[in-house]
Every structure is written in structure tokens, then in C-alpha cells.
Sequence to fold (260 residues):
Amino acid sequence: MLRDYTRLSELANELIALKVDVLFATSTAAILAAHKATTSVPIVMGYYEDDPAAGHDLVASLARPAGNVTGLAAMGLQIVSKHLEFIRAILPSLSRLGVLLNPTLASYRAAVLSVRASAERVGATVLVWEASTPQEIETAFAAMGQTNNLGAILLISDAFSFVYRRRIVELSLTNRLPLIVVGPREYALTGALMSYGASVFDLFRRAAIYVDKILKGAKPSDLPVEQPTKFEFVINAKTAKVLGLTIPPTLLVFADEVIE
Fold:
């Protein structure tokens, strides 16, 4: 997996030079790099973590993209309130919730407002930490470890945090902070307490249909951006045991997968 995101623009330009018929980009960072490289070659989004209509001029709207970009968007902010329900079910006395997210996301402000609104409904205060570099991850968790009464961490996934998910999980366990992720199942498989988000496999499968249509002559501007139809809720029971937490039976029944 590519870790040097500074090379994405270089790689995108190399592909454009090869005169490809369509570009398939699998993450927000790759999609933005491809869009910067070309406004004419069709670009199919495989997994756009952000809101594609919130910034970067990717699409005019989900229904009418207007440009050369279309595909699938994860739209994680739409399900943040569900994560707060999960957290409250496990930690009913939670008073302070940490949030870790990338400040470069176009919908950063919307994400913070969404989490705070959801947290208020369950009586929790939100503290925000930003991370867009490996060092900032370390700095953020060092600060979290010194914060009194911090009950859990909510991570809003993006391509950067996905690449460094193992280190994020390690630091959360070192600081004995339950990590709940707005993102795909791979976080829980790595050791996060819970993850709830769109299925990457399902989005990529559906993105292939877009590629096929474009290769057969369809224009990206005529293909609406689609949102997830399949979400996966994964609980890591081993992590819960390490943290001394009890998962309520109602959550276990609701989960798509429980890692024992």
C-alpha cells in the first residue's frame, strides 16, 4: 500500500500520459490527485470518504456530477449518530469523547459539528484532535493520554488513517482508550473495539459497473454518484476483554461480525 502520498500526483500524471480511457481511484487522496491531473479523462471513485459535493469541486452535486468524476462515496457522516449509540451502550457513563480526524477533509467542519450534535444528545462533551501526519498521530495520543475522564475515541476514517490504522490501534490500547471507527471493517480486524461503515468490497464491486458503462460510451456527468447500500458493523470482543469492557447482548446480535 502506498504510504508516500506526495507521489500520488506524480503517479496520476504518469497514467494520464499513457492515454488511459478511464481512471479508477480507490481513496479520497487518490481521487483528488487524479482530478488535479485531468479534467477530461473519466475518473471513477471507488471509496470517497468525504462528501464529494462539499469541496474540491469534484462534482456539482451527487445527482448531477457535471464534470469528469463519478462513482461511489462512503458518506460516513450520515451514520455518526449510530456510532454514538454504540458507544453509549458500552459506556453508559461516558462524559468526554475524543474525536480523531484529518483536518484536510473538505467536510472537516461538518464532521465536527455532526459529532458534537450527536454527542450532546447522549450527554457527552467532545474533544477534537487532528492528525494528517504520522507525528501528529503520536502527538494526539500523547495528549489524549493526559486528558482526564476521556472515555473513548471516535475515529473518522480517511485514506491517511487507514494506512496508519495499526499504529492508531496500538496507541489506543496503550492508553486504554476504546477506539470506535466511522469506517470499514478492517479497523476492527486490526484491533479497534468497533467499526461501522460502508463495505469497501461492495463499493468496489459497484464501481466496476461504472467503469464498464464509461468504457461503453457513458459520460461521467450522466452517472449520478451513488451512496452505500451495505454497511458492516464489526465488534472486536478480544479488544473488549483486554479493555475490561462488557459488550451488551443487543449489540452482539446487531453486529455483522464478532471477532472472538
Notes: The chain has eleven helices and ten strands. The two ends are 27 Å apart (CA to CA). Strands lie at 23-25, 43-48, 69-73, 96-101, 125-130, 152-156, 179-182, 194-198, 231-236, 257-259.
